[in-house]
């Protein structure tokens, strides 16, 4: 298995080189040169596997034997040893047609832990094997930052800097990042929105001299390993649902940066017989508009009750577009150039029909989000976080009468108590979250100014 860029101007790479490259050197995103197909018979054999065993099966198709099996196994079991649920991502039945895949049992109570605990182990492994320093640089709309920091804090040979939008993440998300006082962690709180943070990151990764000098590595979903690690729980959820061999299964996914839903698209291309992939967004509904109209055009930014999805420019959209247009790198590059110059991409005709065959999408308004939380608390005694509520609302909009739905619970509701308190629901915080409010914070507030951020990064990287 080799890895190539969506834009076609990077020499094919192996697995570890792909991990280290993150954003492709030509500005594209790295993808496998071919996608392995899992047979129906193999899927049935996998039905009884634990999460860790399933992870190892899936990764074995992609690692090119560059990591000895026993080393990979140790990383996987270490990554999930501190999850609060033995299943890692347990499946919770809500009613006869709806299941919730709980992705919030990791150390920061969010789905990003599932991939980033492993990526922290992987980066540490590579750093030790190659005897090289690794500087991880990422942007977060809330959950990625905390999960990434927890994955690598205190690890020798690794420094991590995370940019988050100042005042635009939940208080718990902010505290999970900024109460960490490890010397290898830098939190920059940027006066702007997530798209502003993400643009700085992409610009710095596109500066190949800066990237090379400071050994920059990506933790965001621009790194293919994030995508692949998330693909595992699509397989796990599908195989755990009773009746999945006989009924059509839809999966509804709260979506902001398109990474999580693209992981499902990859799983489906690998042979997992998902019926509908449902994209749930909020008022920042660029993905809904694209699916319904074919126009991919960033709109005005809106702050919502589901801040992790307050994104207008979805990084992983490029990966999907590559496959949508028949893996044509020249055409893909032209589309991305048009996005830069014209501010939009437009898909029409049969290509748009393919998009609508691949996905359904719903932009969930704030009021519906809160109504859904209240409804499921009263009817089922199950408290949803606002992002999961958007996923449930989208499930309700698109799930057919003879179909089963799985909605991803992407975060614990305690992370977004600001929204839940609006509907007079008082929740008890887990002890780990309650303790955050008593801890001092460590962050640097900066303007949305690339030069200022670069100077802070240089000082951080060059201090022993």
TrEMBL record:
<feature type="domain" description="Tryptophan synthase beta chain-like PALP">
    <location>
        <begin position="98"/>
        <end position="395"/>
    </location>
</feature>
<dbReference type="InterPro" id="IPR037158">
    <property type="entry name" value="Thr_synth_N_sf"/>
</dbReference>
<protein>
    <recommendedName>
        <fullName>Threonine synthase</fullName>
        <ecNumber>4.2.3.1</ecNumber>
    </recommendedName>
</protein>
<dbReference type="InterPro" id="IPR001926">
    <property type="entry name" value="TrpB-like_PALP"/>
</dbReference>
<keyword id="KW-0663">Pyridoxal phosphate</keyword>
<dbReference type="Pfam" id="PF14821">
    <property type="entry name" value="Thr_synth_N"/>
</dbReference>
<keyword id="KW-0456">Lyase</keyword>
<comment type="function">
    <text>Catalyzes the gamma-elimination of phosphate from L-phosphohomoserine and the beta-addition of water to produce L-threonine.</text>
</comment>
<dbReference type="GO" id="GO:0009088">
    <property type="term" value="P:threonine biosynthetic process"/>
</dbReference>
<feature type="domain" description="Threonine synthase N-terminal">
    <location>
        <begin position="2"/>
        <end position="80"/>
    </location>
</feature>
<dbReference type="InterPro" id="IPR036052">
    <property type="entry name" value="TrpB-like_PALP_sf"/>
</dbReference>
<keyword id="KW-0028">Amino-acid biosynthesis</keyword>
<dbReference type="Pfam" id="PF00291">
    <property type="entry name" value="PALP"/>
</dbReference>
<dbReference type="InterPro" id="IPR051166">
    <property type="entry name" value="Threonine_Synthase"/>
</dbReference>
<feature type="modified residue" description="N6-(pyridoxal phosphate)lysine">
    <location>
        <position position="112"/>
    </location>
</feature>
<dbReference type="GO" id="GO:0004795">
    <property type="term" value="F:threonine synthase activity"/>
</dbReference>
<keyword id="KW-0791">Threonine biosynthesis</keyword>
<comment type="pathway">
    <text>Amino-acid biosynthesis; L-threonine biosynthesis; L-threonine from L-aspartate: step 5/5.</text>
</comment>
<dbReference type="InterPro" id="IPR004450">
    <property type="entry name" value="Thr_synthase-like"/>
</dbReference>
<dbReference type="InterPro" id="IPR000634">
    <property type="entry name" value="Ser/Thr_deHydtase_PyrdxlP-BS"/>
</dbReference>
<dbReference type="GO" id="GO:0030170">
    <property type="term" value="F:pyridoxal phosphate binding"/>
</dbReference>
<comment type="similarity">
    <text>Belongs to the threonine synthase family.</text>
</comment>
<dbReference type="InterPro" id="IPR029144">
    <property type="entry name" value="Thr_synth_N"/>
</dbReference>
């Amino acid at each position: 298995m080799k890895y190539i860029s969506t834009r076609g101007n990077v020499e094919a790479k192996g697995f570890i080189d792909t991990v280290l490259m993150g954003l492709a050197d030509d500005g594209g995103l790295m993808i496998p040169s071919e996608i392995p197909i899992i047979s129906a018979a193999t899927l049935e054999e996998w039905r009884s596997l634990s999460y860790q065993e399933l992870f190892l099966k899936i990764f074995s198709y992609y690692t090119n034997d560059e990591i000895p099996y026993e080393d990979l196994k140790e990383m996987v079991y270490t990554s999930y040893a501190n999850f609060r649920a033995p299943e890692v991502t347990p499946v919770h039945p809500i009613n006869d047609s709806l299941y919730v895949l709980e992705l919030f049992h990791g150390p920061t109570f969010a789905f990003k832990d599932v991939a980033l605990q492993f990526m922290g182990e992987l980066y540490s492994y590579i750093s030790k094997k190659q005897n090289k320093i690794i500087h991880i640089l990422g942007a977060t709309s809330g959950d990625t930052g905390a999960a990434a920091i927890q994955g690598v804090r205190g690890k020798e040979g690794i420094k991590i800097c995370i940019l988050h939008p100042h005042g635009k993440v939940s208080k718990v998300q902010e505290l999970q990042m900024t109460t960490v006082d490890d010397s290898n962690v830098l939190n920059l709180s940027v006066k702007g929105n997530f798209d502003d943070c993400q643009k700085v990151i992409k610009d710095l990764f596109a500066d190949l001299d800066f990237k090379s000098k400071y050994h920059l590595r990506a933790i965001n979903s621009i790194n293919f390993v994030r995508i692949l690690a998330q693909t595992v729980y699509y397989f796990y959820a599908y195989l755990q649902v009773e009746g999945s061999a006989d009924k059509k299964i839809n999966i509804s996914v709260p979506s902001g940066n398109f990474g999580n839903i693209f992981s499902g698209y990859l799983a489906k291309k690998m042979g997992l017989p998902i019926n509908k992939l449902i994209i749930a967004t909020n008022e920042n509904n660029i993905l809904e508009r694209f699916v319904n109209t074919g126009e991919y055009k960033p709109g005005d930014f809106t702050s919502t009750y589901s801040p992790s999805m307050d994104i207008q420019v979805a990084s992983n959209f490029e990966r999907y577009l590559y496959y949508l247009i028949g893996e044509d790198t020249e055409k893909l590059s032209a589309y991305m150039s048009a996005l830069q110059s014209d501010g939009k991409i437009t898909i029409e005709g049969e290509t748009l029909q393919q998009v609508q065959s691949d996905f359904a999408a719903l932009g969930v308004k704030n009021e519906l989000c809160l109504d859904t939380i209240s409804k499921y608390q009263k009817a089922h005694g199950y408290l949803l976080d606002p992002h999961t509520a958007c996923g449930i609302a989208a499930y309700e909009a698109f799930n057919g009468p003879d179909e089963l739905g799985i909605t991803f619970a992407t975060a614990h509701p305690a992370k977004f108590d600001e929204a839940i308190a609006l509907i007079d629901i008082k929740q008890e915080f887990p002890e780990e979250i309650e303790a955050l409010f008593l801890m001092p914070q460590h962050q640097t507030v900066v303007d949305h100014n690339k030069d200022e951020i670069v100077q802070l990064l240089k000082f951080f990287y060059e201090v022993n």
